[in-house]
Amino acid sequence: MECRFCNILQKSYAYGEIDKPIFENDKFFAISSLGSIIEGWLLIIPKNHTLSMKDFYQQDDLKEFVNNILPVMEQKYGKVIAFEHGTNKEGSPTGCGTDHAHLHLVPFPKSLINKLEHSNLNWTECRPSDINNFSKHKEYLFYTELNNKWDNSQGYLSILDFPVSQFFRKLIADYYGKFEKSNYKEFQFIENSIKTIKNLKLSA
Hints:
- This protein has 204 residues and is of the alpha+beta class.
- 28% of the residues lie in helices and 19% in strands.
- The protein has helices at residues 4-9, 60-77, 113-117, 131-135, 167-175, 190-203, and strands at residues 23-24, 28-32, 42-46, 80-86, 103-107, 124-126, 140-146, 155-159.
- The longest helix is centred in the middle third of the chain and has 18 residues, at 60-77.
- It starts with a helix and ends with a helix.
């Protein structure tokens, strides 16, 4: 299947300015997310085409890349959370229609931990670097709250027995009273993506 993120690396931008990397090095790039319910929502994407981020969480390269971006985000938007919908097969609803690994960095003022605990999923504390060992070949959801830096700090992992689509996006949309607009395919919030690009490029 055609991959939007791989196309971006070939400078083919289906969504114009929104697809152009804001930050980039030799292994990762970051773009403004489609469906940005709030301004400042970024996707961290490996240049290597793979389905989930679990192999990258053990690498210092990812830590360095995220930690170069976080101060810029926090200066502009405040507290940042991170999460992943970790899929393991193409076309899975867990991947939300994107068969290329990506980590979400989102400015968000509150903790979602209470929402996780009251969901119908089972959660366990887990460091990002341990996700590969815990998940094996299963799909997963991962959530962590960043305190000024990405340092392999404790987060929350749910190993999925069935696909779960746009889980964290729905929680964030609900917080802002926009649950009915949580589907990024229908509600793309292009104006927020454009603001993100403008403000983060100016701050970088």
